[in-house]
Model the fold of this input.
Amino acid sequence: MSQNDYNESKKRKKKKKSLGFKIFIGFLCVVLALAVVGGGYFIGILSKMDNIKLNKDNLGIVEDELKEYNNTSKIKNIALFGVDATDGETGRSDSIMIATLDPVHNKLKLTSIMRDSYVNIDGYGMDKINHAYAYGGPELSIKTINENFGLNIQDFVSVNFSSLPKIINILGGVDIEITNEELKYINKYIDDVNRKDGTNSPHITYAGVQHLDGTQALAYSRIRYTAGGDYKRTERQRTVIDAIFTKLTSASIGSYNSLLNEVLPYVQTNLNAGDILSLGTKALGIGNNLEQDRFPRDGYGEGANIGGIYYLTFDIETAKQQMRDYIFNDVR
Done:
């Protein structure tokens, strides 16, 4: 990967940092607000999530590898997956993050893993890390993270990006700037979403700031053939989520109820309501001491064309050591 690519990567990292924090803390605030005012109703709403069981013996945790760290039992790691899948598909994980509750160093951490990272997936060999979700769902994805980076993740939360139209429509739409280049492609994606979801959203006819409904915003987030390719696509997804958060900050608790009713069926996790409330309380107790890192770190990865496919290659042992030092020892 060229130096210019890494410079652009650093710019994207800065944007993603504030966005990741907003999503994580925003979700916790919504959950805790409903817990305070809702009581049993809160438990009922969370039951709408798709709660699944994981085989804890098949998550690739190697305890011996963690002996050099003294705080592993006190620090909680949760895998976060953002999946863009249509009905009947498992989908690949477009976004892979590790949320860390670290009471030892009094920090919340979000660790992102580049989706094109070239790693070993049990039973499938070397491949992009985001393919693990399509091959074996969250269990294989967690196993892949644990085995490659020497971690101890046992829990996850997965959100399907297809839930975005419902969220945005409840909030009354979002304002997003459409470029001339994006205008060339967005209407094709609008037609595609309309056809699949049975909606009838209109085309965008000019560039500039637009007030988008849910279908239009999802179409915008899926554009991938402009300059910047898939990097720009993930940046558009972050732009949409950032716009949603802006709307959420002024929304009423009543609208939170509607949002969770619509969105939670798109959420999959092995955590129950009690687990989520406990984690949320602990996270907010840590406060705004938030950090984010991304692996492989800038300067440690290189793009490679292998068999006609782009991969991000890197030294796995270096990335493993850096990631574990960051998560468990707070060393950057």
